[in-house]
Automatic annotation (TrEMBL):
Its EC number is 1.1.1.40. It comes from the Bacteria. It catalyses: (S)-malate + NADP(+) = pyruvate + CO2 + NADPH; oxaloacetate + H(+) = pyruvate + CO2. Residues 21-154 form the Malic enzyme N-terminal domain. This is NADP-dependent malic enzyme. Its cofactor is Mg(2+); Mn(2+).
Length: 420
């Protein structure tokens, strides 16, 4: 291991250990300076909101933190790019997610690591925790179990349940693709799209793009077995749904004449020859982390008509879930939506894409040390520290919730929603 790698590792460990272990803590929101304060906070005063909530459960949103509290929940079966390391090892990631909720949308979040990887046990545990929270963010759960878990929880709970590895990723990819297609003069309903990696994020991405008008007849999906095609037997349901009637069998076959490559797979799968075989003005989203399916330097040396995105912060056009999940939850909580619908996801996509086409505020340029950022091949998504995200995305999501009939109250922005 290099000296730089040793330093990076130690810096990360020190960050998590000092000055106190972990990344989150409890903050008090009411005065506690006098005996009278404590009598209101606990006995006997606390009996009054208890009686009110027993008479009308909706009063939990008036008298407790339920309406601004999200459970960030994992079983540790698919931690980042590290794999199945178990519930306890996932805790730093879940704490980190809670930190991002608070920082970007002033949402309080509690990380919960569930000590089972049996889907039925996990579902029942989370369902029983439901009264505590205004929403559930599932995280780092492997496919295909994650589909069963999310579906069952959505059906059995009256609060929004959102698996960010699926839908957060899909929203950012869809927003980036919306703008890349605009720049390349192409349309979603007419492109040939190749997706590599039909796991949680890939499946959700295809479902969202289909809702937005993707022509599935022109889609090719590649997984470990090669191109998913209708002559393959015993495909899991999420693979069978995207199997094509085609003679293509390899990634090389599928990419000939393709307009878009979306990689959610492994490093260095996309070769220069494959890239050269794509259609004019190609779009390449190489999102494997930390090493993409093709390095941007190599890709741009092969094609000068390319628009490219990665999952990395050290290249332009980072596909970063923090652009979506705090804000879609903020809008959802602020209209007390019972679930997150496809239309709410699309509203988030459209608001994100539109924001990237606007002039960038000076505060954002300063935060990123940039002299200029403007809509174009190297700027197709807003930056996470753009203060307009909290202004634009939540009301767009809430408006879609109201149109879909899942909002239980008019949208009302949360105080100081810009967070910590």
């Amino acid at each position: 291991m290099s000296q730089n790698s040793n330093n990076a590792r130690q810096n990360a460990l020190d960050y998590h250990e000092h000055p106190i272990p972990g990344k989150t803590a409890t903050a008090l929101t009411k005065p506690t300076a006098t005996a009278h304060d404590l009598a209101l906070a606990y006995s006997p005063g606390v009996a009054e909101p208890v009686r009110a909530i027993a008479a009308d459960p909706a009063d939990a949103y008036r008298y407790t933190n339920k309406g601004n509290l999200v459970g960030v929940i994992s079983d540790g079966s698919a931690i980042l790019g590290l794999g199945n390391l178990g519930a306890l090892a996932s805790k730093p990631v879940m704490e980190g997610k809670a930190l991002l909720f608070k920082k970007f949308a002033n949402i309080d979040a509690v990380d919960l690591e569930i000590g089972t990887q049996d889907p039925a046990e996990f579902i029942e545990t989370v369902r029983r925790l439901g009264p505590s929270f205004g929403g559930i963010n599932l995280e780092d759960i492997s496919a295909p179990r994650c589909f069963e878990i999310e579906r069952a929880l959505i059906e059995s709970m009256d609060i929004p349940v959102f698996h960010d590895d699926q839908h957060g990723t899909a929203i950012i990819i869809a927003a980036a693709l919306t703008n890349a297609l605009r720049l390349q003069g192409k349309s979603l309903d007419d492109i040939r799209l190749v997706l590599v990696g039909a796991g949680a994020a890939g499946t959700a991405t295809l479902n969202l793009l289909s809702d937005m008008g993707l022509n599935r007849a022109r889609l090719r999906v590649v997984d470990r077995v090669g191109v998913l095609h209708t002559e393959l037997d015993d495909l899991p349901s999420h693979h069978a749904d995207v199997a094509a009637e085609t003679d293509d069998r390899t990634l090389e076959d599928a990419l000939k004449g393709a307009d878009v490559f979306i990689g959610l797979s492994a490093p260095n799968l996309l070769t220069p020859d494959m890239l050269m075989s794509m259609n004019e003005r190609p779009i390449v989203f190489a999102l494997a982390n930390p090493d993409p399916e093709i390095r941007p330097e190599l890709a741009h040396s092969v094609r000068d008509d390319l628009i490219m995105a990665t999952g990395r912060s050290d290249y332009p056009n980072q596909v970063n879930n923090v652009l979506a999940f705090p804000f879609i939850f903020r809008g959802t909580l602020d209209c007390r939506a019972s679930r997150i619908t496809p239309a709410m996801k699309i509203a988030c996509v459209e608001a994100l894409a539109a924001l990237a086409r606007e002039p960038v505020p000076a505060s954002v340029l300063s935060a990123y040390g940039a002299a200029d950022l403007s809509f174009g091949p190297e700027y197709i998504l807003p930056k996470p520290f753009d203060p307009r995200l909290i202004e634009r995305l939540p009301p767009a999501v809430a408006a879609a919730a109201a149109a879909d009939g899942v909002a239980r109250m008019p949208y009302r922005p949360y105080p100081n929603a810009t967070g910590a």
